[in-house]
Amino acid sequence: QVQLVESGGGLVQPGGSLRLSCAASGSIFRIGAMGWYRQAPGKQRELVANITSVGSANYADSVKGRFTISRDNAKNTVYLQMNSLEPEDTADYYCNAIVTVMELTTPLEFNYWGQGTQVTVSS
Predict the structure, then answer these.
(1) DSSP three-state, residue 115
(2) DSSP state of 76
(3) CA 96 distance to own-chain centroid
(4) Is 29 helix (H, G, I), strand (E, B) or coil?
(5) Band (1; pLDDT cuts 50, 70, 90)
(6) In angstroms, how far is CA 10 from the centroid of its own chain?
(7) Measured distance CA(63)–CA(86) in Å, rounded
(8) Residues 32, 68, 42: CA angle, nearest 5 degrees
(9) 34-48 pLDDT per residue, tens
(10) What sign does the CA torsion over 49, 75, 91, 18 have?
(11) Cβ–Cβ contacts within 10 Å for residue 29, how many?
(12) What integer best gives the mean pLDDT of the chain?
């Protein structure tokens, strides 16, 4: 089993910063791409940022220049540094990871999700 545990969410004022983290644990053979998604009330879930296993990142247009995704492969952890937060960033943020697990000697890839962490940007 693989578990993704997110942390770092909370309430912050507009213009403030927040750092999310997501640590993967369990029977992990390899972690590929990791990413952050968010879903605001009444809105569709959207990709915020993702990062490949070798560190290539891309971002949604709405967060470019404000958010930075990074990862620490030794810790099986992905981070999302959020600066200059806006009320529009308010959402539940979910970590995602493509994880290869070994079923006996058979490698299997799964798309795992964290439990979500709430980010609220408000005065």
Answers:
(1) coil
(2) T
(3) 6
(4) coil
(5) confident
(6) 15
(7) 10
(8) 85
(9) 999 999 999 999 999
(10) negative
(11) 13
(12) 97
